[in-house]
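Quarterly update, task 2.4: xanthosine-5'-monophosphate-bound model.
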Amino acid sequence: MMEKILILDFGGQYNQLIARRVREQQVYCELHPHTMPLEEIRRFDPIGIIFTGGPHSVYLPDAPRPDPGVFGLGVPILGICYGCQLLAQSLGGLVTAAGDASAREYGKTETFFDLTCALFRDLPETSVTWMSHGDYMARIPEGFRLAAHSAACPTATICDEERHFYGVQFHPEVSHTTFGREMLHNFLYTVCGAHGDWTMADYLRRSVEELRERVGDGRVLLALSGGVDSSVLAALLSEAVGSQLSCVFVDHGLLRKNEGDEVAAAFADRALDFRRVDASARFLERLRGVTEPEEKRHIIGEEFIRVFEAEAKAIGAVDYLAQGTIYPDVIESGLGQSAIIKSHHNVGGLPDYVDFKEILEPLRLLFKDEVRQLGRELGLPESLVARQPFPGPGLAIRVIGDVTAEKLSMLREADAIFREEMAKAGLDQTASQYFAVLTNLRSVGVMGDGRSYDYAVALRSVQTSDFMTADFTRLPWDLLDRVSVRIVNEVKGVNRVLYDITSKPPATVEYE
Ligand code: XMP
């Protein structure tokens, strides 16, 4: 049996991050709503429970609370921020609003630790933590002691080592807390007794067994986009049920330079039915004259389904449809609610328009970095596994305005030059995402002795961990210079190169 940590979600903004930090330490965890019934928690059988932060105040009547039985399970608990206050209040302490502004804390805070507390074992006595709270614990519950303080907050950590309950007022999951990782490590390994049995090699072995059992001798169909998730899924399914698998790779003609061939090559040696459908002509035809971004997305999404559907019918008698849903998709659709800024067309989001027996989502519990790790275990080339995110609608949303074959070709060349130079400069793995955009701005230039009136290409490179917010990459001037010179010289129809220095927000990563 695999060791599991249960993270109960109280609506904090760093909840996904907590889950990732736990998994990074080779301990499996799942994030569930705080309303999870006690019986289910028992069945989940965690070795430890983490209460997340959240925007509420524990002393208000509508404050979210777990089933009180959770305190009687004999399982260690770590409460973070709101979770810490909840722990304190539920066990007899007193939490109040920090009426005096000096007791509220936001941001980096020098904090002093009692190293006899298991959470802080082997750490320095003083370090920086990230605080973000307006409430504080005025009285700690019986059985607890104080284990950390800051100048403004005498109760930065409480612990009851007998019952293995720990509460931290700060956020160990964010990188601004200097020793946050070590504190989580101490909770997982010292307090909960984890052994670190969550590895991709094990996961691979288990998944292959499970898939074989579930699929039996049924037939599986996978829509392959060429992105990391669906490529890794294809490799996993090929390992598990290769001879019963058909992969349909819809080449919509909106891919980057050489991308279609690279995807096809990665699957060429595997014993599976790999179908590359060249649908570029029909996509271009449908997109002709369309300039509105959401309309482009809509057309591409729909067209993709039509092509896939036709291919599925041709294959016939398919029992399972496989999708590359990953854990952030599950968390986002199941737990939180965020505003839709752009309707993301994910190939994984196909409706079950054909009569499938079941949908398979073998990656639904993995984070992106784990999916990449699994891809490596499966022997996929690094060029595929480490690929930066690429939107489903592809280059259609990087050609501003109407999309034509000529514009796509210009963009493909410019983008390839940018990527090549980024790789040469060793920046391809440090920038989170980078690409070229063909704007619909034309301007006057002078080339040779002649006047030109050509397009401007915009370069975009961003740093981000979650793509919800992003900052532009501080690229070296000489790199930008090389890229600009090469693009203007090598790509006919382009006479100007711009570098985008907008963060997200207010801009988004993509232009459309
Ligand atoms: P934005 O532009 O919303 O992008 O800041 C955030 C991240 O999402 C990717 N993206 C998409 N991915 N289908 C996708 O699968 C889409 O329609 C889509 N639009 C944006 C974008 O590349 C970035 O990584």
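Highlight for this quarter: Confidence is low (pLDDT under 50) at residues 335-349.
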